[in-house]
From TrEMBL:
SUPFAM superfamilies: P-loop containing nucleoside triphosphate hydrolases. It comes from Thermomonospora echinospora. This is ABC-2 type transport system ATP-binding protein. It comes from the Bacteria. Belongs to the ABC transporter superfamily. Drug exporter-1 (DrugE1) (TC 3.A.1.105) family.
Length: 363
């Protein structure tokens, strides 16, 4: 097989006392969407900046399409596009003018810049707003315009650094569509995100990083499979908890944990069948409102990876998302995304518990 189009080996980067990257390894196959997932401060932007030739590593090396990002930075730059959390859009120009300007900056001819701008505006659904000044655009529209600017010269590898952080759910959906369309065209995408649901939806492969190193990786399915299934039971009578717990323990080999009265949850061996759980509980005269056999959410995987402890959540207040939500049949993670603009606190599906220390959206 060909060498992956993006390769990082043992990247280290320090800023004074802060060790932002501690030996980061990464490999992305051509045409794939790789989700670099991690909480705020994990080292995502530092990694992207090094891969995009904007910063040099202190140690380690990286290649894009076989070119070293330090020694052959010019070659690399010609192959990549970069769009970030802070859209670099001129507010006084219209969307169309912005794109033409970026096209000229990329040394496209005037005619070619015009044509590319029109194509992209059409393709990413901004044609109607193309002649309005960008200062009137919503955060999502600016982000899309910024994304289009990075696509003017059809990069082979596109780096998207938190493209949806701070956007409302609808704008996030629009960016997701745009990324999917690019992936369908065969563009390799490295997307950083703090959102588990975003990585789950967009990425072929996920690399979870924290404190500058990789703590887990695989396809979303593989990551979830590392934790195995879970069985959740909601009892009609909380008083039957003890009996139900015995039944479940006998079936799963693990004492279940009770996130709230009348609710039991337990890791489930792959062989466990839902019908058997229902039958055994019935045989023990335990009345149930709901029994669910589900795959863990990426949230649970992340919690597991970051604290490195047992599969079972802690016994006291359970904060893991998805615990109260029956699984999607296809195992997709459901995340609560609050309505309205998602700037600031309470954005759904964010990994880790850390608050952002930077602004969600460019004003
Ligand atoms: N230019 C810089 N100067 C000092 N510290 C920095 C700089 N850039 C990043 N850091 C620190 O390095 C760590 C990783 O940052 P970053 O790569 O931006 O993480 P992420 O993008 O995952 O939020 C953080 O602790 C951050 O504060
Ligand atoms: Mg960042």
């Amino acid at each position: 097989m060909d060498e992956p189009i993006v390769v990082a080996e043992g990247l280290h980067k320090r800023f004074g006392d802060v060790h932002a990257l501690r030996g980061l390894d990464l490999a992305i196959s051509a045409g794939k969407v790789c989700g670099l997932l991690g909480p705020n401060g994990a080292g995502k932007t530092t990694a992207v900046r090094i891969l995009a030739t904007l910063a040099d590593p202190d140690a380690g090396r990286a290649r894009v399409a076989g070119h070293d990002v330090v020694r052959e930075a010019d070659r690399v730059r010609a192959l990549i596009g970069l769009a970030g959390q802070y859209a670099a859009v001129d507010e006084k120009l219209t969307g169309r003018e912005n794109l033409r300007m970026f096209g000229r900056l990329h040394h496209l001819s005037r005619a070619r810049a015009r044509r590319r701008a029109d194509e992209l505006l059409e393709r990413f659904g901004l044609a109607e707003a193309a002649d309005r000044v960008a200062g009137t655009y919503s955060g999502g529209m600016r982000r899309r315009l910024d994304l289009m600017a990075s696509l003017l010269v059809a990069p082979r590898v596109l780096f998207l650094d938190e493209p949806t952080t701070g956007l409302d759910p609808r704008s996030r959906g629009e960016i997701w569509d745009a990324v999917r369309r690019l992936a369908d065209d065969g563009t390799t995408v490295l997307l950083t995100t703090q959102y588990l649901d975003e990585a789950d939806r967009l990425a072929d492969d996920i690399v979870v990083i924290d404190h500058g190193r990789v703590i887990g990786q695989g396809t979303p399915d593989e990551l979830k499979a590392t934790l195995g299934n879970r069985v959740d039971v909601l009892l009609e009578e909380p008083g039957s908890s003890a009996v139900a717990a015995d039944v479940l323990a006998a079936m799963t080999g693990t004492a279940p944990h009770a996130p709230s009265p009348g609710r039991l949850t337990s890791p489930a061996p792959a062989s466990l069948r839902l019908a058997d759980v229902v039958r055994e509980l019935d045989r023990a005269d335990v009345a149930v409102t709901d029994v669910t056999l589900r795959r863990p959410s990426l949230d649970e995987v992340f919690l597991h990876l970051t604290d490195g402890t047992a599969h079972d959540p802690p016994a006291a207040p359970d904060t893991s998302a998805g615990q109260d939500v029956p699984a999607d049949p296809n195992g997709a993670v459901r995340q609560a995304v609050p309505a309205g603009r998602g700037v600031g606190a309470g954005q759904g599906g964010r990994v880790g518990g850390t608050a952002r220390d930077d602004e969600g959206e460019v004003a």
